[in-house]
Amino acid sequence: MKKLLLLAAGLCASMAARGQTTPPGKLVWSDEFNGPTLDQTKWSYETGTGVNGDFGTGQLDRATDRPENVAIAQGIAGADGGALRISTRKETYQDRNYTSGRINTKDKGFWGPNHRIVARVWPQGVRTQGQGFAFWMQGNEAPAGVAQLTWPQVGEVDIMEYVGSIPANNLGTVHYAYQYNNNQYADWNHGQHGGYYSFAEQQLPDAPEYLRVDLGAVYRVNHVSLTWENNSKSYLIETSLDGTTWQPAYRTSTGPGGTNDLTFTAVDARFVRLTGTLRVNQYGYAVYEMQVFAAGGTTNLALNKPATASSVENATLGPALAVDGDPKTRWSSGFRNPQYQIGGQASATDPNIGANGWHEYGIDWYADRMEFFVDNNVYHIHYFNDGAAFGLVDGKNEEGEVLLNGKKTLKSEYSNLFPEWHPFEHKMYAILSAGVGGSNNTYGGPIAASGPIFPADVYVDWVRVYENQVVTATTPAQAASLVTGFPNPAETTYSLPGVAENSLVKIVDVTGRVVLQTQVSNGAVDVSSLRAGLYTLLIQGKDAVRQLKVIKK
Question: How is the chain split among helix, strand and coil, in percent rounded to 5?
């Protein structure tokens, strides 16, 4: 697989559903894993070391068809009868020091739109960086006259990607190609949209983040000015006399970005706090300047006063930089997406760790979209066509966080990018696989220095496929105006018509690292210094930070 990619009572049942998914229809395929051995009329073993000798992810294991790696187990707590066991083991076998199990339904079971595909899984042994398990799908069809589609043109859907380095979250992702490229693989030709599910929050993880300033004395304040580098869609301003008891002074759910001059009823306060509650993207809240003014005053009371924050992206982007009077420095919070847990075993008792219990991981697959869910909580919706998620056909692969039924959910678009093949409109087969090790951005990363515990057992109670009720996608809310650019791919400059001169542009690589920060000059940005590859441009506008993907030749 390629990508940049509850103990006690919890063992006895999955978490209760929260009622976000549509009830499934008729059961059309299943494996309950109640037989004595793997049913090979439904599944095939995949053995060896896969693409590039490392499954394309930097893994260190060799997949086998031995019962040590794949077998049916009985008496597993909470299972509805038998359960499939897939194990990674530390052992010398042929040319490798680790072994694993991988099975798939290729040419035996494959499904397309208007199906629910779901598995009940307990990744019991996946607890440390370098260990991982996935329930995923790849295309089982190809265009007429083509023997086999290459990856990622064929499409990939990761329903469950659970790794020991991020033990409190599951990742649901689509992978696709930007161009058909004559059915040839190219490093630049890979798009993806992935949403994390928090077992604790039962939604997309997005804990509130705050920036707090101590004015040093009590003032009667009624005006706060915020200059955003990466804004919050929903945020509030709070005040306090003692730093403990807080009162809301201002709130919005339509934060526009740029500079926000906020006025409110005058209130006595020594402490003022900005709290972001809904992000516009996966990156941190980032503020160039937070200024506080007394009623009728023009002096910035927050200037160079002590400031604290809930988190920082790194040590060079601390909260003091948001009150230093310099419009070029900023505070930035941690990213929305969870970061790797480096070393150490995940807790064996925390109910919010996925390895501590059974959960149901699935997709509801419709003609126009896929809805990823865990325990019936939808957290990522991927739309296949341009404009379906955000209401504007603009040729951009976008994503954004929204509230649906009170749940934070990632919406993303789009994957029907070339006429030769629309990957998620065709049938795909299911894969269950475990792995050991990986490169920095795949399969949970390198093996932790403290050493994972083996064997690492994962149990699958059942895999089921239902006919899905056909549901028309909700009409998206009117989207704000978005930017476009050309040419794509770009070699030296990338034109941004309609973007204001001197607008700030951050260029982010596929790992999420900012590799260049520049400004629009003569209607374009200079990309000549970038290496060949795929990048995301974050463009600061008056009302929001816009993003679009660019391929650098």
Answer: 5, 45, 55
* pLDDT for position 20: 58
Q: Tell me the per-residue pLDDT of 18-53, one tens digit each, with 9 for 90 and over.
A: 335 766 789 999 999 999 999 999 999 999 999 888
Residues 23 and 147 in one domain: yes
- The Cα–Cα gap between 351 and 7 comes to 7
Phi, psi of 319, deg, nearest 5? -65, -30
Q: Please report the pLDDT score of residue 451 as a whole number.
A: 74
- Compute the half-sphere exposure of residue 347: CA atoms within 13 Å on the CB side of its CA: 8
The CB density around residue 121, as the number of other CB atoms within 10 Å, is 29
pTM given for the model: 0.76
**Strand pairing class (61-63; 96-100):** parallel
Domain boundary among 275, 301, 332: 332
Q: Which of 398, 346, 370, 395 is nearest to 165 (CA)?
A: 346
Same domain? For 138 and 12 the reply is yes
Nearest CA to 313 out of 383, 403, 230 is that of 230
pLDDT at 516 over 90: no
One DSSP character per residue, 97-115 reads: EEEE-EEE-TTTSEE-SSE
| CATH code for the domain of 57 | 2.60.120.200
Query: Residue 510 is part of which domain span?
Result: 493-552
Co-location of 122 and 195 in the same domain: yes
472 is a domain residue: no
The residues that are catalytic are 156, 161
pLDDT in tens, 317-340: 999 999 999 999 999 998 877 877
Query: What 3-state DSSP class applies to 299?
Result: coil
**Backbone phi, then psi, for 182, in 5-degree steps?**
55, 30
Which of 307, 332, 357 is the C-terminal boundary of a domain?
332
Report yes or no on 484 lying in a domain: no
**Which is more confident, 450 or 182?**
182
Does one domain contain both 44 and 164? yes
User: 177 and 35 share a domain?
Assistant: yes
Are 290 and 373 found together in one domain?
A: no
What digits encode the pLDDT tens for the residues 139-148?
999 999 999 9
Over residues 197-206, mean pLDDT: 93
Residue 429 has pLDDT above 60, yes or no: yes
